[in-house]
Design the sequence.
């Protein structure tokens, strides 16, 4: 499936110098949206002036069983472009992490061979893995961070707002919270502090976080409301942190605040300064709720992935036969 494909308008009719705004179309399932999806949309947006995104009911490959490309007409018209796929992330892998309940995906932890075996087999059909649905290793690079980062520095008159948390499986609840925070000032500059994996696991337990610190960084950077990210922020919001970033306001959602290791309130300093504020996102979606949904529907997800990979492998075989004929 050309999930990372985009079709857009070409130059103005007749080759006139004054071209129309280029409208770009891309589509997909976007199930449990992650930074791979964000990267696709970022690339598609850069191809034109106006991006339209289509969300459909499944993420089946965009080729028929006989190898016919459903983008054939668009390609014939010269209006098809393809985005580069983001390696190392897939909905399949994230679902596998939730179901296996191991910590092998955390940063600074040696790979668990049992975890790798299970992720390799998760949703695997009898004929093996498809290159589209299979799991690959994520490798963080400075270039990836640069591509997602806004690159904006605080300007005079900006209100610097600090928020902190895990921001795991970055979802609409997080977006709603950040949007509400963004509305608190005329010129907000939001800095998001992300806790290291081991810190998140301390206060969340089980196998949280589902996404490691590198993956969570890209997910948060992709949000339009966030201007900067502190990678591995301290759990306690200290005086040094507030002074360093010249923070005017510290916000937290309506979720529970777990005490620090010594039993102290991690927001003690901003509360002492009178700059702490609770913000209600208006959303009841949480990372815990997403994980509960996945676990409840485990068999359905496994069957979905097996069916999906079987179709993709069948298409690959059809494409191979067509190439041999030519």
Sequence:
């Amino acid at each position: 499936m050309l999930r990372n494909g985009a079709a857009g308008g070409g130059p103005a009719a007749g080759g006139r110098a004054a071209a129309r705004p280029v409208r770009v179309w891309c589509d997909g399932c976007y199930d449990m949206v992650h930074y791979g999806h964000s990267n696709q949309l970022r690339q598609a947006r850069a191809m034109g002036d106006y991006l339209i995104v289509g969300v459909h009911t499944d993420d089946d490959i965009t080729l028929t069983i006989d190898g016919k490309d459903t983008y054939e007409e668009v390609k014939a018209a010269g209006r098809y472009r393809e985005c580069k796929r983001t390696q190392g992330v897939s909905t399949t892998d994230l679902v596998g992490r939730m179901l296996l309940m191991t910590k092998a995906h955390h940063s600074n932890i040696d790979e668990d061979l049992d975890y790798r075996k299970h992720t390799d087999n998760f949703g695997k059909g009898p004929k093996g893995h498809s290159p589209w649905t299979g799991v690959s290793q994520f490798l963080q690079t400075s270039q990836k961070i640069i591509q997602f980062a806004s690159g904006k520095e605080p300007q005079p008159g900006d209100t610097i707002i600090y928020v902190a948390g895990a921001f795991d499986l970055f979802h609409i609840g997080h977006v709603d919270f950040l949007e509400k925070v963004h509305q608190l000032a005329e010129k907000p500059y939001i800095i998001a502090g992300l806790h290291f994996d081991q810190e998140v696991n301390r206060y969340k337990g089980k196998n949280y976080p589902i996404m490691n610190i590198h993956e969570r960084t890209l997910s948060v950077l992709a949000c339009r409301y966030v201007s900067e990210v502190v990678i591995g922020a301290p759990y306690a919001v200290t005086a040094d942190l507030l002074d360093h970033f010249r923070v005017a306001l510290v916000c937290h959602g309506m979720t529970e605040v777990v005490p620090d290791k010594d039993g102290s309130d991690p927001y003690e300093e901003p509360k002492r300064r009178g700059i702490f504020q609770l913000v209600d996102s208006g959303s009841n979606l949480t990372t815990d709720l997403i994980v509960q949904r996945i676990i409840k529907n485990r068999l359905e997800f496994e069957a979905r992935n097996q069916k999906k990979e079987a179709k993709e492998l069948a298409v690959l075989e059809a494409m191979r036969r067509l190439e041999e004929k030519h």
Notes: The CA atoms of residues 120 and 135 lie 7 Å apart. The first strand starts at residue 5 and ends at 8.
